[in-house]
From TrEMBL, chains A, B:
The lineage of its organism: Bacteria, Pseudomonadati, Pseudomonadota, Betaproteobacteria, Burkholderiales. This is (2Fe-2S) ferredoxin. InterPro entries: Thioredoxin-like_sf (IPR036249). It comes from the Bacteria.
Length: 116, 116
């Protein structure tokens, strides 16, 4: 019988989720603002840097993250850091600063008041 | 100028991601093992319990979480707790114990050695 109450250590040291949601009624959504390209770029950069895999970083597709007003968004766990990005240089900075070096990119933080 | 180095507080207190990935080459995947039904059930239970929303719980769709050998899987952040579930009663227990009361469901923890 396992009596451990300690959760298993994080399988990934950092897990970033990109909202790739596409609304089918034509409403504004992350998918209309370059989310797929941002995801692809992030994934490629992380792989290129040798950061991908167990114990390291996972770049993940996600459905609607429910913060549409701040989109396009991505969230990094376990920190729970939310980013609102605009272009590919923003992605480069998130990878280099946060995913590689653990330093939050202040200028891209999603404003706390922005939700659905 | 913002000089804060403190990340914003978690927008959701708990964020659970279900792998709903469907491999297009017919290979085994979470989607073939009831992942959509599990996601739907979890989402409905969380809503019913009044736990859904900012400051509370978000039940999210995700693409491949890259732990196919342990599937179907879901991961709860910020804890980074991975679950391998089988049926709807497993989902009920994850909602009741972990998402509602913060108590990890030991018997459903994904074995640490199971990855892709």
């Amino acid at each position: 019988m396992s009596t451990s109450s300690i959760p298993t250590p994080g399988y990934f040291s950092r897990h970033i989720f990109f909202c790739l949601n596409e609304r089918d009624n034509g409403q504004d959504c992350c998918a209309q603002h370059g989310a797929q390209a941002a995801f692809d770029r992030c994934k490629a950069l992380v792989k290129e840097a040798g950061l991908a895999g167990p114990g390291q970083v996972r770049v993940n597709k996600a459905g609607c993250l429910d913060r549409c007003a701040a989109g396009p968004v991505a969230v990094v766990y376990p920190e729970g850091t939310w980013y609102s990005y605009v272009d590919s240089s923003d992605i480069d900075e998130i990878v280099e600063s946060h995913l590689k070096n653990g330093k939050v990119v202040e200028r891209l933080l999603t404003p706390a008041e922005l939700g659905r």
